[in-house]
Amino acid sequence: MTYEILTALVAFAFVSSITPGPNNLMLMASGANFGFRRTIPHMLGIGIGFTVMVLLVGVGLMGLFEIVPYAHLTLKVVSVTYLLWLAWKIAHASAPKGGDSAATPLTFLQAALFQWVNPKAWTMALTAISLYAPERSLFAVALVAGVFGLVNLPSVSVWTVLGQQMRRILNSARRLVVFNWTMAGLLVASLYPVLMT
């Protein structure tokens, strides 16, 4: 991989990781509702989970979509259904009250597994492998996954910090409800590109 291609890969990883999507909207909501520290497992789950996903997509799962075309439609239906459920949970979330609140942020494992039903993550992984590891050699796929692993965590952290900073504004139950419903609406709106393909 040439320097120019590597630079383009880093830019692609950064832009696709930091732009709005289900992961980032959920992190912003988690940062606002639970703060940065409690959202760290969620962020790590996204960063590591997505890196593993890119690796597995590149070494074999991409070929599955070529062999079994309806697998892609099945994935889309499952993803949209799950994201609608998550949007409902975000809309009805409330700020934790002391140490006994039932509300909790996503765990590391939940966030890592979420990548497999996240339409934007699938689009990013498939596009990255197609553009930057078209021959799907183990080295090229590992390089693409590694670049995403390095770029993704700092990028998604920005959204958690943004959400945490919004806690100053969301100091009333009414504002928090409006914020959570707005985040839920944006999460549903992020499905539009998926539904149109």
Core attributes:
197 residues, 9 helices, mainly alpha
Structural commentary:
This protein is mainly α and about 200 residues long. It has a domain at about 25-70 and about 105-165. The protein contains 9 helices and no strands. The chain is globular, with a radius of gyration of 17 Å. The mean pLDDT is about 85.
How is the secondary structure organized here?
Layout: H1 3-18, H2 22-34, H3 36-67, H4 70-91, H5 108-114, H6 119-132, H7 138-166, H8 173-189, H9 192-195
Q: Which sheet architecture does the biggest sheet show?
A: none
Oligomeric assembly: single chain
* Beta-strand proportion: under 5%
Number of helix segments?
9
Task: Describe the structure concisely.
The chain has helices spanning 3-18, 22-34, 36-67, 70-91, 108-114, 119-132, 138-166, 173-189, 192-195. It is an all-alpha fold and 197 residues long.
